[in-house]
Amino acid sequence: MTDQETEFHAKLRALVGQPTGGTGKPSVAPDPVNQPMIRHWAHALDDMNPVYLDPEFAASSRFGGIVSPPVMLQTWVMPSPKLEGIGDRGGAPIEIEANPTAFLDEAGFTSTVAVNSEFEIERYPRLGDVISGMAVYEDVSDEKKTALGTGYFLTWVTTYTDQNGEVLGRQRFRVLRFRPER
């Protein structure tokens, strides 16, 4: 292995345990958990669970009131998208201030495909909760050859908490960063 390859692999391994956004700060929901957004989600996904929509039913449930669908955790912390210049940001809907994986682009691993997403739910979000999410790289694979090209699987875990720091859940997300086959 060349010195350049050794340095590249060291940078890859150094991602593990580091925040994904480069800032080290959690993403905070722009709005508290609220009924209109829950209603939009329920109707868009045809998930008409009465604990999401019916205050009377929800009050008599084990939750004691309206709750948010737990897989909405990611949705609550999404910032408002900035669409101007989105192509210049590689399709990212927000400004990327510090990209800890920029060295992958420089090495030719310019394409990304989402592979999977898994949720672990501790408790359902309640109306008024202000949710934060902190994403940290969990794993980087060895180099893999795939039908799309050669690359690396990057996995990060986002931990979602409420305004009191109580963990609501975790989302494990995996992508393949690869060199496209020509």
From TrEMBL:
InterPro entries: FAS1-like_DH_region, HotDog_dom_sf. It holds the Pfam family FAS1_DH_region. It comes from the Bacteria. Residues 31-167 form the FAS1-like dehydratase domain. This is FAS1-like dehydratase domain-containing protein. The lineage of its organism: Bacteria, Bacillati, Actinomycetota, Actinomycetes, Mycobacteriales.
